[in-house]
Amino acid sequence: MNVVILIIAHWYIGIFIQSLFLHRYVAHQNFEMNTYLEKFFFILNYIIFGSSYMSPAAFARMHELHHHHADGEEDPHTPSNTWGFLGTIVRARNSYQDVYHGRKNSQPARTYPEWKFLDRLGHHWLSRVTWVIVYIFLYSVIAEQWWHYLLLPITVAMGALQGGLVNHLAHKVGYRNYNTADNSRNILRLDLLFLGEAYHNNHHKFPHKLNLAKKWYEFDPIFFFLKCLDYLHIIKIKKRAL
Ligand SMILES: [Zn+2]
Ligand SMILES: [Zn+2]
Fold first, then answer.
1. What pairs with residue 175 in β-bridges?
2. Contact between 158 and 8 (Cβ < 8 Å)
3. 28 CA from centroid of ligand 2 (Å)
4. C-alpha of residue 61 to centroid of ligand 1, in Å
5. CA of 2 to the centre of ligand 1 (A)
6. For the chain, first and last CA: distance in Å?
7. Which residue, 63, 240, 49, 64, is CA-closest to 162?
8. pTM higher than 0.70 for the full model?
9. Where are the domains of the chain?
10. How far is Cα 99 from Cα 178, in angstroms, rounded to an integer?
11. Of 102, 133, 196, 211, whose CB neighbour count within 10 A is largest?
């Protein structure tokens, strides 16, 4: 049970970072935060994803390609013409490596916040292996059943798994509010699983808007949280994003 709780907590903190920091802050630059808070999120991104660390700037450069070429040849992670979920993950992983090493989108439309030291650290094999050892140790302390160890790959690959699930499902299953040129879909009507990221068809229609929910029954928890931070003057939401 403890391992299941660990995975659920890891899932939600991971989605929180991917949505708030990687997607809405670094990639779309929908709001501003001070340097200390930004550094805090960079470090949190490294600690929470550990073995599956992704460079925020490379994530953003890859995401830029996705918005420009959604479901086309140049889309870094379209589920079209791939063999299922695994195909989307492999395509995304290869595209990410190409972008990170400057073989793809080396001249992005804008500059993205980056911390090169953390990128080098997070990408180093020693860092990734150390995190896997940490997870095995953690499991050895809290696992109550032998089969709990079968869940270890979820912890090891959490970053890739979450990115892959959103990218795959949001261009495959769900409903459409808008007739966009791509296959984007809103995965869930009430998105308590991806904290707002499931409203992907809305996002493709209005990529610069911070609130991903559009219909009365849709609710975007991250947007609500960011509005509270903005109200408290902890962050500043840009006018164009509202
Ligand atoms: Zn998309
Ligand atoms: Zn986006």
1. 186
2. no
3. 6
4. 14
5. 34
6. 41
7. 49
8. yes
9. 2-241
10. 30
11. 196
pLDDT of residue 80: 87
Ligand 1 geometric centre to CA of 170 (Å): 7
DSSP string of 53-120, one letter each residue:
---HHHHHHHHHHHHHSTTSTT-TT--TTSSHHHHHHHHHHHHHHHHHTTSS-SS-SS-----HHHHH
Specify whether the CB–CB gap between 194 and 19 falls below 8 A: yes
Tell me the CB-side half-sphere exposure of residue 117, using CA atoms within 13 A. Answer: 3
Q: From the CA of 182, how far away is ligand 1's center (Å)?
A: 8
Radius of gyration of the chain (CA): 18
Separation of CA 66 and ligand 1 centre (Å): 6
Q: Name the closest ligand to CA 23.
A: 2
The predicted pLDDT at position 43 comes to 98
Spacing, Cα 83 to ligand 1 middle (Å): 18
Kindly give the distance from the C-alpha atom of residue 70 to the centroid of ligand 1, in angstroms, as a whole number: 6
Gap from CA of 72 to ligand 1 centroid (Å):
11
Question: Within 13 Å, how many C-alpha atoms sit on residue 206's CB side?
Answer: 14
Phi, psi angles (nearest 5°) of residue 162: -65, -45
With tokens 């991903």, the residue in question is 212
CB 88 within 8 A of CB 169: no
Quick one: tokens of 80? 């079209």
Model pLDDT, residue 106: 84
pLDDT at 1 over 80: no
Would you say residue 180 has pLDDT above 80?
yes
Q: Which ligand is nearest to the CA of 209?
A: 2
Give me ligand 2 centre to Cα 50, in Å: 23
